[in-house]
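Researcher: Good morning. I'm working through a list of sequences from a screen, and I'd like to move beyond sequence-only analysis. For each chain I'm collecting a predicted structure so we can compare shapes side by side. This is the next one on the list. No need for commentary yet; just the structure.
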Amino acid sequence: MHMISSPEIINEIFRHDVLLQKYTSFRTGGAAEIFVEPVDTSELKKVLLFCKDEQKKVFIFGKGTNILVNDNGVKGVVIHLGGVNFQKIERRDRNVLSGAGVTLSNLVRTVASYGLGGLEVLAGIPGTVGGAVMMNAGGKYGEISDSISSVTTMTFDGRIIKYTRGNIEFAYRGCNLSNQIVIEVEFKLKESKTEVVLEKMDAIYKEKKEMQPLGTFNAGSIFKNTPQHKAAELIDKANLKGFKVGGAIISKKHANFIVNTGNSTSADILELIKIVKETIKKKYNVSLEEEIHIW
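Model: Good morning. Structure tokens for this chain:
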């Protein structure tokens, strides 16, 4: 056993039966058995060692924009990287250090104010830096991995590891950093004029707004594209746009988005996901894989 008393941690920072609805962009789902927001890496390490000792399952999230939480909730410890020390941004010449809990929108605007370019391709993508690295977030203009110079992680047994860009394998919507938590990311950027970067950002955001149901309760793209097909095009072709289950609807604006119209349950969304997968498999013999994480 590690020299950590469970009551000390539980009494100080653990919260029980916390509804996760307000923490996810879908605004659905049940409660976390245990919910914790560590303020820094030393507190995160204590929590992880406690989970290891008590054999508690660990769930990590930043802004909850890529997660569907089951209506029955989550058994285990949900760690939210919302603490102040995970939200720091620090400039080092043309490099920028960012905590994992920084939102992408905040990072992109802050970097633009420094007169540095390279991250504007992420405009309009929700979520935090840590989650964006884990899923190599991006779009047609580029991915977050394009600008990364190093990533610092913590393993589930509390070890801190720093990876240079060359030691990380990034793929479409993923990387090889599973079973560890991103805590800090360093970006190598290029000098630019603030107004030029902001102009590019606004253009990308405007384009997204026309194509995607931004401003609604959704979790972004539900399915990954396949090497041969764009998921949205297949769903559109199958006439599933506007298809509804309970309070959940397949967006009429973008077929790869499911929107909670206000009274949806996670079960409604899961049923829609199932219908889409079965329909696409039957009609086109294509197996769609979820991009969102289902807890």
